[in-house]
TrEMBL record:
Tagged with keyword Metal-binding: yes
GO molecular function: metal ion binding; peroxidase activity
Domain Heme haloperoxidase family profile: 1-124
Entries under Gene3D superfamilies matching the protein: Chloroperoxidase-like
Cofactors that this protein relies on: heme b
Pfam families per record: Peroxidase_2 (PF01328)
Source organism of the structure: Didymosphaeria variabile
PANTHER family: PEROXIDASE STCC, STERIGMATOCYSTIN BIOSYNTHESIS PEROXIDASE STCC-RELATED
Similarity-based family: Belongs to the chloroperoxidase family.
Name of protein: Heme haloperoxidase family profile domain-containing protein
Amino acid sequence: MTDIRLHHNESVPAIEQDASFSRADYFWGDDYSLNHTVWKQTRSFWRGNTIDVQEFGNAARARYLTSKATNPTFYFPEVENIGAAMSFMTNVLGDPEAGNVPTAFVDEWIGESRLFATASVCKK
């Protein structure tokens, strides 16, 4: 395998890989394919070359509140959802000490549903 794609996680929900930043809730049917409306909402909070903890938190909070308001079966704990996704993104794609991640890496990983295992994207 030369890359990791979000659909590789479909058979076993082992990780909430993007905190539903780009996918509709399971309640609405297809929770694996990119949902452009959801992604546009999330992406609107990320304005620079890096996503810092504040921007990430604002996007996560907006997605959480949208899901809570529109999905009667939504139950995911907010803090767990935000923390797990941010930790995964900064530790795999970004700088865990600075608490940020390059926006381009997240765009490729979530927006294009792929994470290439190359030196230019993955950390050492």
